[in-house]
Amino acid sequence: MILVTGVNGQLGFDVVKELNKRSIDCLGIDKKELDITDENAVDDYIIKLNPECVIHCAAYTAVDKAEEEREICYKINVNGTENVAKACRKVNAKMIYISTDYVFDGKGDIPFEVDGNINPLSVYGKTKYEGELKVKENLNKYFIVRVSWVFGLNGNNFVKTMLKLGKEKESLNVVCDQIGSPTYTADLAPILCHMAQSEKYGVYHATNEGFCSWAEFATEIMKKTGLNCRINPIPTSEYKTKAIRPLNSRLSKRSLEEDGFDLLPRWEKALERYLKEIRGLF
Ligand SMILES: NC(=O)c1ccc[n+]([C@@H]2O[C@H](COP(=O)([O-])OP(=O)(O)OC[C@H]3O[C@@H](n4cnc5c(N)ncnc54)[C@H](OP(=O)(O)O)[C@@H]3O)[C@@H](O)[C@H]2O)c1
């Protein structure tokens, strides 16, 4: 039995869908069933359920808001993850923890390796890294999977925002000097299912293949949907946000490939399939 937290979020939803598709016994839960910040509740729940693996997709993900809500972000991403990791240890379950490109500072222009220099620029990035440390401190049987620029059916994401604004506006300013890889949850979910059944523990990066800027991503969204909205590329310095984001979010997938996990498809193809999936919603 595999327990998936954050089932109402983007990734958790598709992970449960993929496990069901593969007829793997699983249970998806969210805050209503279990608040991960409640240590005793997490213990009781996981000990009673006795899963062989927990895929921990629940998180505080509001990157800008986190700069003002430090405590709640810390509580969910660090204490919550620690609670899950400790409970996993008690039942000898493996844990798959989802982390982020925002643990890096984005210096340079080459892809970060899994053991690259950690230096988060934001509260969110710091808490996600501290979450990684809690997993490592408490468990031997763990996967830490850093992902980036996530889009899925459930919840809000950049693609949905662009579709909405693209219908309302003739042009949009979008940053062109943050480079990374969009990641479609439906492409990520099969890798996580594979990990849940593997013992090749460690730290991995998993994103769709190829790199682009947010402006290039936005341009592709408009092109593929035929929306008549011009994308004006602007530097990050002209687009102020509360949280500082890394300019170079390129992640190396070397360890994923070397350990026999499939690389994800190109991001443009992923976007094409995603736009089909959400057709009718927009
Ligand atoms: N989104 C991205 O671009 C991105 C990029 C890199 C890494 N990641 C990581 O990828 C993972 C999945 O992200 P996502 O985009 O799928 O996140 P998401 O859509 O924001 O979903 C997160 C889920 O966690 C739940 N949650 C929050 N606090 C909780 C608590 N105290 N107890 C139990 N559940 C709680 C949320 O419930 P409520 O909505 O009810 O609060 C939500 O359903 C996260 O670890 C995230 O840090 C995401």
Based on CA atoms alone, the radius of gyration comes out at 18 Å
Bound molecules: NADP nicotinamide-adenine-dinucleotide phosphate
Number of strands: 12
Q: What structural category characterises the helix and strand content?
A: alpha/beta
Query: Major beta sheet, specifics?
Result: 6 strands, parallel
Shape designation: globular
Main CATH class of the domain at 2-155 and 184-208 and 250-264: Alpha Beta
Helix-strand topology string: EHEHEHEHEEHEEEHEEHEHH
What is the topology, as strand order, of the major beta sheet? 2-1-3-4-5-10
CATH topology (fold) name of the domain at 2-155 and 184-208 and 250-264: Rossmann fold
Task: Pick out its properties.
single chain; 282 residues; alpha/beta; Rossmann fold; 6-stranded parallel β-sheet; two-stranded parallel ribbon; 9 helices; 17% strand; binds NADP nicotinamide-adenine-dinucleotide phosphate; oxidoreductase; EC 1.1.1.133; NAD(P)-bd_dom_sf; NADP
Task: Give me the secondary-structure topology.
Layout: E1 2-5, H1 10-21, E2 26-29, H2 39-49, E3 53-56, H3 70-90, E4 94-100, H4 123-138, E5 142-147, E6 150-151, H5 158-168, E7 171-175, E8 179-180, E9 183-184, H6 185-196, E10 202-205, E11 212-213, H7 214-225, E12 230-234, H8 254-258, H9 267-277
Helix pairs in contact: 1-6, 2-3, 3-4, 5-7, 7-9
Bound molecules: NADP nicotinamide-adenine-dinucleotide phosphate.
